[in-house]
Specification:
2 copies of one chain form a homodimer. The first copy, chain A, is an alpha/beta fold. Chain A has a single domain, classed as UDP-N-acetylmuramoyl-L-alanine:D-glutamate ligase, CATH 3.40.1190. In chain A, 37% of the residues lie in helices and 24% in strands. In chain A, strand 12 and strand 13 form a beta hairpin. The longest helix of chain A is centred in the last third of the chain and has 18 residues. Chain A is globular and about 55 Å long. In chain A, 50% of the residues are buried. The model of chain A has no long low-confidence stretch (mean pLDDT 95).
Chain lengths: 303, 303
């Protein structure tokens, strides 16, 4: 199955203790699509300005990403500027320029309306719901959001979550959305809002996945060189949803494996700026790192 | 094999958002010994004042803990007072009364000097080294320390670490000891100081174990009710060292299983104040939670 994704395509300016990049390719839908494209085809719905270069378009098109839903409108592309300290878990946002994203209305090309797997990247929950309404018979809808929407558009977000099967958010967002410090209780409250699966991203600490009757957890791979964590969460989601869509299997066992593939993909993204590590990534490296996750986490059974 | 442990026996006064306890039984050696006693016999070296009640002595003795190295001296027992917020990962120390601990000199009873497995709980590294010198032919020495000694007695600590096989500390201490923010690089620097294994405790995020050529990681069990994290680290160490000593196997595979048993034991301790959960813990519950860790972390291989 292919995946329909709606989200941002952006230029990022990023500073980390290890270097910096200015107006480099970024955006939630960009990271998600590129990551997912290692597993299956992707239909991208987003908007860019007239300053978006052919080079970036060509890169995305080369990755099995259908760009017929990528609107190009007069004005400048969305820009984000952020900085990370030695604690690479959290970015400090220095500047956000919505630019053409401000008037973004996701209109799906006709052929995108038959999508079976949908990922709603982190955008206004009202726009997320509009996308859901345009898709005829989705089998699985996964969704991201952020503190800004949880605080400012809670009602719209709750309406969107009723339509969502898998919510993929970070630990702080989980606590904020449920208004509950204990993560297990918070997860139960969020599952009551609609999703059957909650994926809690914990940065360098890994991922927790709550289902209705089970919980799965995997640590992040401990890396010696982390250059830029930007996009790690969207890259995770791309690997996670990408694996599920590629196999068409949405069982609990598949969700566990998908979590590992998501973690594998994210572990590559942080090794370089922008999408640079994904650009030069080959499938055998993905398989090798999957095996490294097995080696990282394996322990024997009771004797 | 039995385990020799040197550390503190204390009265704790603890406040958490879920309740409080005053002058309840605590101390690193107390938590360690009680936890390890589920796996093997323990020889305890510590000091208490004349205010230490027979009730606590009787409890420890009932747990297969040899108290012939527990000195009773005039004065009051060591007291610690701390508070936790909703973020239960870190205690705020409100008061520390060293009392009889101030003049503590660990003198091992003759029969303790043949110990094969030694755990040096978090005390002055000079005292830790004195214990090492009194033990004739230890097979494995494990050790804990804290920010206070890393900052204030680094040279003594480095001398002690030369004698240590397994260092068990938390994440912040790892970075502080190596003066390096990246955990993988920090681990390598610490292994160069002497230990062949570094166990990094990450509270609710689990544990990372670095060997010379391998790394293992396990998440903590996500718990719905965490009442009091005091003693979780020492309880972990008790299960970890306890399993190794009980089996007499110190291979990498054994260290992985020991890490899971340590995590199992810690997951019980935090469910109640003081040692109350361990007091009513039975072996079948330990086995059941070990299986829960298997269920928490299992995923299939590459097809």
């Amino acid at each position: 199955m292919e995946i329909l994704v709606v989200g941002s395509v952006a230029f990022d300016s990023v500073e980390t203790p290890f270097g910096q990049g200015t107006d480099i390719l970024g955006g939630s839908a960009t990271y998600f699509s590129t990551s997912a494209s290692f597993f299956t085809g992707v239909q991208l719905v987003a908007v860019v300005g007239e300053d978006f270069p052919a080079e970036h378009r060509d890169f995305l098109a080369s990755r099995n990403i259908d760009l017929s839903g990528l609107q190009v409108v007069p004005g400048r592309t969305f820009r984000w500027k952020g900085r990370y300290g030695y604690d690479l878990n959290e970015a400090q946002t220095l500047e956000t320029q919505l630019n053409v994203f401000e008037g973004f209305q996701p209109n799906l090309p006709g052929k995108f309306r038959d999508a079976e797997v949908v990922f709603l990247a982190n955008i206004d929950p009202e726009l997320q719901l509009e996308v859901v309404r345009q898709v005829r018979r989705p089998r699985v809808i996964a969704c991201d959001t952020m503190n800004f929407w949880i605080a400012g558009k809670r009602e719209a977000l709750v309406r969107t979550l009723r339509e969502v099967d898998i919510l993929i958010i970070n630990e702080g967002e989980t606590r904020q959305l449920a208004n509950e410090p204990n993560l297990v209780k918070a997860a139960r409250a969020i599952l009551a809002l609609g999703p059957h699966t909650l994926v809690v991203k914990r940065g360098e600490y890994g991922v927790l996945v709550f289902g209705e009757h089970n919980v799965f957890s995997i640590p992040a791979y401990p890396l010696e060189e982390v250059f830029d964590p930007t996009g790690a969460g969207d890259t995770f989601a791309g690997g996670f949803v990408g694996y599920l869509a590629a196999t068409g299997n949405f069982s609990e066992a598949a969700i566990r494996k998908a979590t590992v593939f998501g973690s594998v993909m994210a572990s590559f993204t942080v090794e370089d700026f922008s999408l640079d590590r994904l650009r030069r990534l080959a499938w055998p490296e993905i398989e090798e790192r999957f095996r490294m996750f097995q080696a990282l986490t394996a322990f024997e059974g009771l004797d």
